[in-house]
Write a structure and sequence with these properties.
The chain contains 17 helices and 9 strands. Strand 8 and strand 9 form a beta hairpin.
C-alpha cells in the first residue's frame, strides 16, 4: 500500500460540501460557487399546479429521488449538529446545503395527505445524456397518499426535517420551528398509513431506489430524531416499543442482494438499523462495532487487501463513509461513558474505532494501492471521467445552444476527461481488489452520489478538528 501522509482534511471538507452545489436543481442563487451549473427544473410540479422546484439530483442523472435525497439531508444535518463546531468557515455552506433540501421538502409535503416521492420519469431521463439545464424529458411528479402509502419515503423526510430543525435552532428559530412542526405531521402520516412505496410507485422508483429493508426502520429512525428534537416521551416510547422487532426483522434482501442476517452493520439510504442503534440507544450499538471491526470474530463486512471496507453491490464508498461516521459518533459516546466494546476476546477502545474510520478516510483521499484520491478535485490524481451528465457535457457558458437527448452521447463515449470539475464529488469507488475503472460506462465505480458525500462531511469535520487522533 502506498502511504500518503498528511491529508488536508480541511480542504477535503470544504470540497465535500461544495459538491452539493453541483447537484442543485432549481433557481441557483447569486452565491452559487460551482458556476458552470445553471438553473434547471424550473417548472417541476407546475403541470399539477404545485411548486416542486428545488432539491437535489441524486447522482449523475437528472431525477429527484426523494428517498435517498432525504437520507442524505438527515446525514448532512447529523454531520452539522455533531461536528458543526469543527467546521469553521464551512459551517454556513453546510447549512446552505441542508436548507436547499429542506426548503424543497417543505414544498414536497405542503399538500395535506400527500407526500411527493419523486420528480422526473426515470426511464426517459436515463435514456438521455443531457445537461439538467436542457432537460426535455417528462418531469412527472409521483406522490404517496393515505390510499397509496409510502411510509419509508415519508418517514425519512420526517427524519430529515427533524434533524435539520436541531441544526437551525440556534441560527433561525422560526425556520427550525417550521421544520419541526412539519416533521411531526409527516411522521404521523407515515405511521398512520403504513405501507411501502414499492407497492404503489414500484414501476418508477424501482429498480433505482426500491426499498429492500422494509419501512419499519424508517419509522423508528424518524421517531428517534423527533425524540432528539422534542424530548417528548411519546417518541421515545415508540422507539423503545418497536426497536426490538427491528432486530428480529431479518430483511431478506439489503440493497437488492440476499441478506444472510446481520442487519447490525446496515446503514445507508435503504436500511437505517445501525444508525438507529447508535442514535437512539447510544450505548447499545456494540453489535454494530463488532460487525465492522476488522479484527472482530463476528465481523460481517469484508476488507480489501488495501484496507477498504467492502460490501456486496455497487457504489462501495457509500458503506465506507456511512459506517465510518457511525464509528466516530459511537466512539465519542463510549469515551464519555468511559467504556470499551468487547467483541469475543477482542477489546475495542474508542481510539481503535477512530483509527478504523481514519483508515477509510485516508484510503478515499489517496492512501490506497491505486495511489489516487476518489474525491474529484482533491489530490494530484483523481477520477477524470465520472458518470455525471452535467460534468461531462459542455456548460451553457461554453455552449449555450441546446444539446438534445442523444446529442450528448459522444461526450458519454469520449475517452477524454469531463469538461467541468464536479469538485468534491466522491465516486462509487474501487472493487474488492482495490481496482478502479475510470470510465463513465462503469457507473457502479465512477458515479458520485449525494449519499456517499453526506456522511463524509461529518467524518471530515471530525478529522479536521483532530487530525492526529
Amino acid at each position: 500500500v502506498v502511504s500518503v501522509s498528511g491529508h488536508d482534511y480541511g480542504e477535503a471538507l470544504s470540497k465535500s460540501i461544495l459538491f452539493f452545489e453541483g447537484q442543485r436543481s432549481g433557481k441557483l442563487p447569486p452565491s452559487q460557487r460551482l458556476t458552470w451549473r445553471k438553473d434547471s427544473g424550473l417548472r417541476d410540479g407546475f403541470e399539477i399546479g404545485i411548486d416542486l422546484v428545488g432539491g437535489y439530483y441524486d447522482a449523475g442523472d437528472n431525477v429527484k429521488f426523494n428517498f435517498p435525497m432525504a437520507w442524505s439531508t438527515t446525514m448532512l444535518a447529523w454531520s452539522a449538529s455533531e461536528f458543526g463546531r469543527r467546521m469553521g468557515p464551512d459551517l454556513p455552506h453546510a447549512l446552505d446545503a441542508i436548507r436547499w433540501a429542506t426548503d424543497y421538502f417543505l414544498k414536497a409535503t405542503s399538500v395535506p395527505g400527500l407526500v411527493f416521492a419523486q420528480v422526473g420519469e426515470p426511464y426517459g431521463d436515463h435514456n438521455c445524456w443531457e445537461r439538467p439545464e436542457d432537460m426535455d424529458t417528462p418531469r412527472t411528479p409521483y406522490a404517496v397518499s393515505a390510499q397509496f402509502p409510502g411510509s419509508e419515503v415519508s418517514a425519512e423526510i420526517a427524519a430529515a426535517l427533524a434533524a435539520a430543525s436541531l441544526v437551525f435552532r440556534q441560527v433561525d428559530r422560526s425556520y427550525s420551528a417550521l421544520l419541526l412542526n412539519r416533521a411531526k405531521t409527516v411522521f404521523e402520516f407515515a405511521d398512520k398509513y403504513q405501507g411501502s412505496y414499492n407497492d404503489n410507485l414500484g414501476p418508477w422508483v424501482c429498480p433505482f431506489y426500491c426499498n429492500f429493508g422494509g419501512y419499519e426502520d424508517e419509522l423508528i429512525w424518524a421517531a428517534s430524531w423527533l425524540f432528539k428534537a422534542t424530548k417528548a416521551p411519546n417518541y421515545w416510547n415508540y422507539v423503545a416499543a418497536n426497536t426490538p422487532n427491528l432486530d428480529n426483522h431479518k430483511s431478506k434482501t439489503i440493497n437488492s442482494l440476499p441478506n444472510e442476517g446481520g442487519s447490525f452493520a446496515e446503514f445507508g439510504w435503504d436500511t437505517k438499523n445501525a444508525g438507529i442503534n447508535v442514535l437512539a440507544s447510544k450505548l447499545n450499538a456494540d453489535k454494530f462495532v463488532c460487525s465492522v471491526l476488522p479484527e472482530s470474530p463476528t465481523k460481517y463486512v469484508n476488507y480489501s487487501a488495501g484496507g477498504l471496507l467492502v460490501k456486496p453491490g455497487g457504489s462501495n464508498l457509500q458503506h465506507a463513509t456511512a459506517l465510518s461516521f457511525l464509528l466516530i459518533v459511537y466512539a465519542r459516546y463510549m469515551n464519555r461513558a468511559d467504556r470499551v466494546v468487547q467483541c469475543g476476546d477482542v477489546k475495542a477502545t474508542p481510539a481503535r474505532l477512530i483509527q478504523v474510520a481514519k483508515g477509510q478516510v485516508d484510503y478515499i483521499l489517496g492512501s490506497n494501492p491505486m495511489n489516487m484520491s476518489y474525491m474529484v478535485g482533491y489530490g494530484g490524481k483523481f477520477p477524470q471521467r465520472i458518470h455525471h451528465r452535467g460534468s461531462s457535457l459542455p456548460s451553457l457558458d461554453q455552449r449555450p445552444q441546446q444539446i438534445g437527448c442523444k446529442d450528448g452521447t459522444p461526450y458519454f463515449e469520449s475517452s477524454g476527461p469531463n469538461l467541468n470539475l464536479l469538485t468534491g464529488a466522491v465516486v462509487g469507488g474501487p472493487d474488492i481488489e482495490d481496482r478502479y475503472n475510470d470510465s463513465r460506462a462503469v457507473f457502479v465505480q465512477s458515479e458520485p452520489t449525494t449519499y456517499i458525500n453526506a456522511p463524509f462531511v461529518g467524518v471530515l469535520a471530525f478529522f479536521k478538528g483532530r487530525p492526529n487522533l
